[in-house]
Amino acid sequence: MAMNVLEVLAVTTILYFVVVAVWVWKIEDILEARGDERRGEA
């Protein structure tokens, strides 16, 4: 099962976007949690 260069590029691109999307989502959750803590203190 030899993969074409295009197939490899397509799979890597999809995986890259999934990883970035999850990473951004996690960062937003962490920032929101910190923002809530600051609001609670103030």
TrEMBL record:
The keyword Membrane applies. Keywords: Membrane, Transmembrane, Transmembrane helix. The chain crosses the membrane at residues 6-25. This is CcmD family protein.
